[in-house]
Design a protein that fits this description.
Blueprint (H helix, E strand, L loop, with lengths): L1 H21 L14 E9 L2 E8 L3 E2 L1 E11 L8 E11 L5 E2 L8 E5 L2 E8 L16 E12 L2 E12 L8 E5 L5 E8 L7 E11 L5 E3 L4 E7 L14 E5 L5 E6 L5 E9 L5 E4 L18 E5 L1
Parallel strand pairs: 3-10
Antiparallel strand pairs: 1-2, 2-4, 4-8, 5-6, 5-9, 7-8, 9-10, 11-12, 12-13, 13-14, 13-17, 15-16, 15-18, 16-17, 18-19, 18-20
């Protein structure tokens, strides 16, 4: 029995070394977590100085935490800001005004000078975990704010730039479900996975008739993680857990990464009635030298 366990361990080490050596991203297996909220840009409007913040001071493709701070323009005095509402849009090359998931009403539970929320951006479109380097592509988006101070409503707006993601473990996907509706799934955690059972958190949103998005409720996101590279042969792992919605509105589950490298998170999304919205079962067969089958709903990661 000990000999069998030892042989299995040595085989795993061998397979891992093959993955890093044969794939073109072996030198990209180190990523930093996104840092604290820092100013991306600011607006001087209505006698106010409005700071727009994001992690590391930049907006990236995928899920982004954000914050809005509003003070007087000259003295930077604290104001009695009652609420901040957000609208984020993008105009494509055809002139269509598009949107994406974001917090419409920002949260000020910590401090009425700091209003926090999130935004999910689906551009640039050229992103792949197989890219050798960050592409440097920038896409313009427009942030419009409606905020209230002492009962008076003000408005302001600013163009921002969204860059390619720097961390493939915060990847995302957009798709049309069998119900004809457009959906987004964005990875939120872990930013830096471990070779262990990881807490997996995603956001899931569906497009409404007014071109905005809302969180889907009481769905289930079934999970089947695999290493699809030809040098891994569709290797999977035990102890994974499907994702279900928690009180924060996001979907939580477990994913067990048994080694570093290129993984595909294969999903099947089911609505609250158990109907499949998107996703297909993948083969459980392990076959070296063949790229593994992927669900028609999947997100690739690399760590």
């Amino acid at each position: 029995m000990r000999f069998i366990k030892y042989t299995s361990l040595m085989m795993a080490v061998f397979l891992f070394s093959c993955t890093v050596e044969k794939t073109p991203f072996g030198n990209r297996l180190n990523f930093a977590s996104r840092g604290s909220l820092q100013e991306v840009t600011y607006i001087k409007e209505n006698g106010h100085n409005i700071s727009i913040e994001a992690s590391d001071g930049e907006f990236l493709r995928g899920y982004n935490d954000l914050a809005i701070k509003i003070v007087t323009a000259n003295t930077l005095e604290r104001l009695n800001v009652e609420e901040v509402q957000l609208s984020i849009t993008h105009t494509d090359k055809q002139g269509r005004v598009l949107s994406a998931p974001y917090s419409k009403l920002l949260n000020n539970s910590e401090d009425n000078r700091i209003f926090k929320g999130f935004a999910v951006f689906d551009t640039p479109k050229d992103y792949s975990v197989l890219n050798a380097t960050h592409t440097g592509i920038k896409t313009p988006w427009n942030i419009a704010l409606t905020y209230k101070i002492d009962g008076v409503t003000y408005q302001a707006q600013k163009e921002i730039e969204v860059l390619d993601t720097r961390n493939p473990n915060l990847n995302m996907t957009e798709f049309q479900g069998k119900d004809g509706k457009k959906y987004y799934i964005a990875l939120i955690a872990p930013e830096i996975p471990k070779v262990a059972v990881n807490n997996l958190i995603v956001g899931i949103w569906v497009e409404k008739s007014d071109n905005t998005y809302e969180v889907v409720n009481n769905y289930v996101l079934e999970l089947d993680p695999r290493m699809p590279g030809e040098d891994m042969g569709n290797h999977s792992s035990p102890d994974n857990q499907d994702l279900t919605q928690k009180n924060d509105g996001f979907y939580h589950g477990k994913v067990n990464y048994t080694m570093q490298g290129y993984w595909t998170l294969n999903f099947i999304l089911k609505d609250s009635f158990g109907n499949i919205v998107k996703g297909t079962q993948v083969s459980k067969k392990v076959q070296m030298g063949v790229f593994g089958e992927q669900s028609d709903l999947h997100i690739d990661i690399l760590f």
